[in-house]
Design a protein that fits this description.
Strand order of the largest sheet: 2-1-3-6-4-5
Shape: globular
Mean pLDDT: 87
Strand content: 5-15%
Number of helices: 8
Radius of gyration: 18 Å
Order of helices and strands: HHEHEHEEHEHEHH
Amino acid sequence: MTLRYFRARIGGFLCILGILILLLTAAQMLHTPKETLLQNDRTPTLIIDPGHGGEDGGAVATDGTQEADVNLQIALRLRALAEFCGVPVVMTRDSATIDYPTDAGTIAARKVADQKQRVERINAVEHGALISIHQNFYPAPGPHGAEALYAATVHSEEFGKLLHALLLQTLDPENRRVAAPISDEIYLMRNVNCPAVLVECGYMTTPREDYLLSMPVYQQWLAEGMAQ
């Protein structure tokens, strides 16, 4: 057993502890007057965006694994944890397929249309908070580690730094990456109006990390880190 394994298990234990606290809080809420609950009902809706999908596979690992598939698996695990905690969830996609507009005749046009549809769906959610799940790519193997990139919207920076810290605590305390503002070139993150963070879970171009990202248990640990 490695030190990272035990650290990851501790992170999982903390997540379970957090879930128990949430359940106890929910039990207490059952005895709270309805009027008080309505006054304090500010639970955000978690919007989960599994990056890419459909005809856009995203980054491709050396073994042919597509980023879009890994993103979706992590996103579904995150949804399950969030819903278990009583957090309302909206997904921008929950399968490998995407319904494109009939007038989008090229792959490029379909990708643009998909991004616009996602932005519209996200911005229609009242009091939402977005986590967009992606995997990183680098021309040469070597770089590794998760990283949170936050949008320019209100509270995104605090959201991104907290999410980044929890991922490092859960998976990789020796990771020296820091949360950072995302490039304005990313259409979806530039156009959403809620607190938003894009998580690069790891590098698919680094063989060891790509192997971890393909493992269901590691995908679960990533989801636990974000769910906290």
